[in-house]
Amino acid sequence: MLVRSNSRRFMPSQADEEIHQLSYLQKHMANILTLLADSVEGEGDDSLVLTMETFEHLGFLVQFSEGTSLSQAATFFANSDPDMPAAPVPAAQVLDWMSQDIASALEYSAERSAAKESNQQTMSDLDVTMAEANASHPRNSTPSSNPAYYRNVTFVEGFSKTSVVKHASDIKGNSIKVLNCHDSVIYILAPLKYATVYGCSDATVVLGAVGKVVKVEHCERVHIIAAAKRICIANCRECIFYLGVNHQPLVLGDNHKLQVAPFNTCYPQLRDHLMQVGVDPGVNKWDQPFVLGVVDPHDSLSHPAGVSDVKAESATCLDPDLFNNFLIPSWFGDERQEPTCNPFPLPEIYGACQNKKRSALEDIQKTIRELQLDENRKRELATALHAQFKDWLYASGNIRQLYCLQGD
């Protein structure tokens, strides 16, 4: 388990976190809808309405069964004429509908958690959405007979001090979960709808193309490299996010010392994968994190007692001088393809710093080439350079990654 620093309690289990998140939504949904709603003429509850487009923004926070959009699941938008704009719906009606579904999902999750504690459930945690919880809630339904437990989700779980590579052919379904991986490098080079990174530390996770949302929760000292439509970050510490995202990064909960930076890698199939899942590399809102809510002093999962409500901490932009491209080894992809450049254009200041570093490297290479050395001195220089590079490989931990990947 990942131990939280400064004497905080152990990281909650996935079941505990699911219940905690649902409770958070239950408590704050009215305020969230007020932020999203448009004002119209009227009195009381009728003065705030949500359009279908605005309603879909809640997809940041809740997910129904795979392939079903939020508006399709909602009774008030489900039968809308695709050729006509749907009529706005009162925020109070949306709140009633959301509250009922959250309550059902919360009750179902609590039952699952209780069943696990009493050893009545032997299967590992799987993702159960609100719609599935409602469908499977009858008393005669058991976890083992619930189809939600057999959803097509690929798991990368429990890896330590190693490297893991997943290509499109290795992915089952359209979702992946990277759970409790430590001191490792995880490459997910595939088009996906959903991705979750949970409970990882001292790791690098590369997510190639995610068409719906990436969720990163309870991670420490992790580098996330993600190209996605959306990303939601919750309860993370000292993490850096290298992002290519079409919507503002959503920051929730108790976060500390987060940094964001532009997307910084590529692989031969990346542009095709982005196109498959509908991520537009021409739009990148990596530097516009949106912080939702405040830290709750009564939240025993994330906050010590006796501290007043404070606004949740946002993320700062990484110093351009510290920004570097992340190289994915060429043998991962189709070696017949030429390497492609980063599909997300770099902001000018980051591009200038990269050019400066590239120019400095070229100057060093030129100086070495122009040295007038005899063969013995050339060998001594080569030996010294190789020794320094080897020292760096060991000091950075990349030597282990190199051995792991060569073994594959």
UniProtKB/TrEMBL annotation:
Gene3D superfamilies: 2.160.20.70. It comes from the Eukaryota. SUPFAM superfamilies: C-terminal domain of adenylylcyclase associated protein. Keywords: Coiled coil, Cytoplasm, Cytoskeleton. The keyword DNA damage does not apply. GO terms for cellular component: spindle pole. Residues 147-279 form the C-CAP/cofactor C-like domain. PROSITE patterns: C_CAP_COFACTOR_C. This is TBCC domain-containing protein 1. The lineage of its organism: Eukaryota, Viridiplantae, Streptophyta, Embryophyta, Tracheophyta.
